[in-house]
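> call design_seq(struct)
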């Protein structure tokens, strides 16, 4: 299997073994009634601290037990004006690279640094994943190809479940000479062959396929012979066998082009389909002669469909952005009243932040003092407002 090599790889592929276990110190608990200082024995955790150490420290209790993991790692775009620095030149990453990779770390490219950062974390996530679980990893074009190669190495290429392509609703890269980007991606891996995606409900459009009806309900049907890619006998030899047509004659799966093809299922499954009355025969024209040909029924009732890898529905994104916008506006004025955010004397705070252009309505002189924040989350929301250099956290303009 092809593998990816980069400067510093030899220093990080086993680094997860050197990471020390830490003991979690419970600070508070939450349930539907709010925060509790006493331990309510919740199974949910929000962990504050270094994520590499946190992942290592989860192993004793959760190794092989996590059924669903979603991570949203830095996209490595080079954007440094964000509280969760999206650039691997972040001082914390530089310090870690110096300790783990050594002097070689000084010569690493942006991609080398990102791969060094990601590899040990993915190794620990693979160990946490259950045999019937899956991991979903958000990424964009900056590191998608590199990410897939190291995930193939860590999780196994055979356990790659696919890539979700998600429309973002906006086109980035307007100042570049290449094509803009309107999508990001979610890579999906399992840990074993036991993982099966759940189906989605059929839509009204899907149900239009099920136009046929019998006493069991509406159904659609397909040829029993496999068509399209991988339809040849040599592709799945165990699916090439004879069946008996209504006239008592043997029939093999032969393509209209004349080559040996294969059925959609193996013989044992075919016998079960016959037993369940899901196989029916029709007279069709084959090679200018009328002949019996087998089909498989698919009933609409209780049927689902496989999730698509293309997600173009962006209304959900718009609703989330709208909610965040309203929440940010509310928090912004609360923090002004609490002196967590202030303006230089020569500027006046706008009375109202426009719902359609929140950031543009905030004066560029606005800044906040980092020590005034109660939580990392509050700091993050302010920095989200600052993505156009309108707000500064801990920097007086």
């Amino acid at each position: 299997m092809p593998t990816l090599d980069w400067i510093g790889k030899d220093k990080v592929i086993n680094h997860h073994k050197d990471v020390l276990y830490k003991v979690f110190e419970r600070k508070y608990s939450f349930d539907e009634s709010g925060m509790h200082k006493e331990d309510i024995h919740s199974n949910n955790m929000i962990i504050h601290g270094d994520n590499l150490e946190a992942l290592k420290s989860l192993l004793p209790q959760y190794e092989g037990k996590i059924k669903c993991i979603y991570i949203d790692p830095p996209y490595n775009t080079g954007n440094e004006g964000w509280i969760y620095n999206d650039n691997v030149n972040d001082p914390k990453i530089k310090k870690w690279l110096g300790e783990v990779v050594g002097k070689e770390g000084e010569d690493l490219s942006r991609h080398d640094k990102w791969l060094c950062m990601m590899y040990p974390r993915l190794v620990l996530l693979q160990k946490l994943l259950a045999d019937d679980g899956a991991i979903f990893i958000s990424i964009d074009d900056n590191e998608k190809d590199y990410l897939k190669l190291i995930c193939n190495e860590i999780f196994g290429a055979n356990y790659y479940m696919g890539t979700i392509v998600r429309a973002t609703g906006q086109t980035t890269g307007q100042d570049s000479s290449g094509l803009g980007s309107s999508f990001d991606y979610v890579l999906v891996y399992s840990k074993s062959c036991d993982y099966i995606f759940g189906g989605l409900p059929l839509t009204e459009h899907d149900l239009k396929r099920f136009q046929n009806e019998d006493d069991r309900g509406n159904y659609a049907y397909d040829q029993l012979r496999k068509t399209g890619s991988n339809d040849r006998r040599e592709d799945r030899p165990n699916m090439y066998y004879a069946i008996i047509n209504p006239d008592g004659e043997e029939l093999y799966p032969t393509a209209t082009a004349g080559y040996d093809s294969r059925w959609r299922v193996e013989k044992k499954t075919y016998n079960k389909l016959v037993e369940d009355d899901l196989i029916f025969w029709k007279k069709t024209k084959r090679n200018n002669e009328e002949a019996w040909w087998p089909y498989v029924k698919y009933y609409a009732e209780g049927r689902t469909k496989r999730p698509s890898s293309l997600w173009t529905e962006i209304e959900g994104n718009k609703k989330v952005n709208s909610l965040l916008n309203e929440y940010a506006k509310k928090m912004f004025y609360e923090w002004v009243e609490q002196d967590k955010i202030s303006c230089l004397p020569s500027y006046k705070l706008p009375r109202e932040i426009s719902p359609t252009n929140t950031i543009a309505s905030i004066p560029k002189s606005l800044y906040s003092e980092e020590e005034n924040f109660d939580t990392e989350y509050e700091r993050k929301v302010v920095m989200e407002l600052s993505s156009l250099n309108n707000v500064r956290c801990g920097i007086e303009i």
